[in-house]
Amino acid sequence: MSHTVVGVFETSNEAQTALQQLTSSGFMRENIDIAPQATTGTSEQHADDDSIGSFFSNLFGGDDKSRSYSNYARTGAIVTVHAKSAQEAERAADILDDFGAVNLDERASGTTAATDTTRTASTSTDSTIPVIEEEMQVGKRTVETGGVRIRSRIIERPIEEHLRLREEHVHVERNPVNRAATERDLSGFKNGEIEMTEHAEVPIVNKDTRVVEEVNIGMDVEEHDESIRGTVRKTDVEVDHLTEEELRRRRTEGDRSGL
To answer: Which part of the chain is the DUF2382 domain (predicted)?
Structure first.
């Protein structure tokens, strides 16, 4: 929404001073128009008169108020500020008033009461209501929900087995006798040697490694459908057309409340 702020000054010097104050206060020069006093009796005067009359006619409509304002503004200088907001328009109006903008209502009516100078006129163009609507975006992401940790380690356990072992022991017996020697005895009557070896069983331990179990690690994948519910917002714009009868009723109620 844009706002137009108009200040009318008695002299061009006052208008130039107000212009300098506006620019030093942050207003862009290209958003400020200034119309100096017209030169009497020239063609430029008639062109300026027509432009001033058209300006106030567009601002207030073709009524007596616009004609009164136009007649007085033709004798002075006009500063027009195109503001971007209502706050900026209010600040421009304050600057114009502080630096000599005249009260056209008082001048047009012929009064000279020492009251505050007039608030300069402002107009606004079309306003726009943005229609905003939310949309819900549904996606998916992977999260960790659990898992399995498998550790393997070697442990020892005691084992006991029972065996029967056999051992051999050589023993020698000497028995005294007294008999006559036989031929067999005589055949063995010579140097000789006899050996007999003892034997014994001892335990032998062997280990046989065998696979007794296999642990398989795998992943099962399942899919399921899930309904996602939520709410979204949007701007709902309702347009009500005002009739002439309703406007007249409002004006009547306003007049009554002002009494």
So the answer is: 129-239
